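Margin note from the TA: students keep mixing up input and output lines. Inputs are the sequences; the output is the structure of the whole complex. Example:
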Amino acid sequence: MIQNIVDGFLVGSILSLGAIGLTMIMHMLRFANFSHAELLSIGAYAALVFDAVFGAISPILQAKIGPLSITLALVLAILVSMAVTAVSAILLDRLVFQRIREKAGPLSMVFASFGMALVIRNVIGLIFGLKTQLYSDEIAFAVMLSTDPLILVKPDQVFVFCAAIVIMLVLHLILSRTTFGFALRAVAENPALAQVNGVNLGLMIGVTWAIGGALAAAAGVFYGLNAQINPVIGRDLVLPIFAATILGGIGSILGAAIGGFAIGLASNLALLILPNGYSPAVPFLIILFVLMIRPNGLFGVSNE
Amino acid sequence: MSSPIARDVLSVRDLTAGYVADLPVIMDISISLKQGSLTVIIGPNGAGKSTLIKAIAGLVPKSGGSVVLKDSEIKDIRPDQMGDLGLAYVPQTDNIFRGLNVRQNLALSLRKDKSGAASRIEELYNLLPDLRDKRDALAGSLSGGQRQMLALAMALARRPSVVLMDEPSAGLSPKVAEEVLTLVADLTRSGVSVLLVEQNVRLSLAVADHCYILAEGRNQIDGEARQLANDPVVGEIYLGARRMGAA
């Protein structure tokens, strides 16, 4: 059971990163963006490409960091993939969603997001193929933290967990301590009032997409480090990320972070009582339960 | 109170505007605002009062006419740039950010003036001491009167020359509404000009310098507020004189 909890926290940290970006975009633009999870795929594959590029440029960058299977090249690639995915998210908005929201309602945006999810997933499949890939072909051995109960943790998993927490803390500090963060929160709460208080709405929408994209990229790479990279990462994670967002409450960064950990833990603890194949149903059940009991989630506020 | 030689700080000429193209809510409206004056716009529901000040603030598309602020026409300017020109707007409802505390709301309004933000916030606390006591409280937890004070402080933060206010007394108790409108009137002594939309006709005419009456999206009557308050026709239509007499 403790092993399931450890795994739950790890998966939860990845889901939290995805859910924070999703909740920011959903709250600001008032639509359920089903293409958000595909940004994780873009980030994961961008890091794969840049890892290879940096590794080819300089052999020094191929050196592993301590006990991790992660190289300096991959660390740099993660940073670049966050930037690439941020730009991709902005382009997605400018080329697709901005045009639709100027002419149509939120429902059209939702359907467009379904469509874009399919397009992105298939383009990635066309470019990179359908077979799974890894950032490192070497086998990463787990460290035994305890024999009774048996607890195994890979150094990469500790890195992923710590990096996810650091990213969330940095975002929290930006949103809670800077006027830039106040402006982002203001636009999400009341766009018209934010505008008359001097906030450039278009700029802030772009920034929100960029933050969502960057966090999704980190989540995608961390997921790839923990499992494998394939073109259906988005399809596999869209439901847990939505469950985390809805559980935390649309618009709540803290809620999305806690929601991610809750879904990660629930999915892994469910493995104790459910056959492996039924575990993906857990987030769906949580969504249903939250919507029935507390429609605004744990920390969400109504937009009405 | 405005002096007789005060110049127009805001001049609206033949303004036509509406939320949907070819369906204007206000038509050919002209108003002017003297420096350091309080001007009130009254009229029945649906007269276009709120639409008028939203159009001036750049939140409703204009299809005709002009808005001139301090001798410069406001044209093709985004709502977020209005503050740079010296124009502030306070909406009727949802005029503060509930998820931010009082200090954060003020800091947000002063985002473009970071160097002087701390001292300006102190000045605003001195002007509205209730806000100092509540500076760390979430704006969503404030009372109705305190919210209006905060909204007003946010509007004043960047030292605007003109403040547009949409029914600041709405939803407040009569006592608090009087306090808020008296405070608004006091602001004009510092040279700020206020254009106020109000449903509380008696109270607003008592504190205002000038008044415009709108109906069906057009100018109907305008004049000095005290004269209009004593005008029997205005009293009958807008102050309920006939009903009061009948009673």
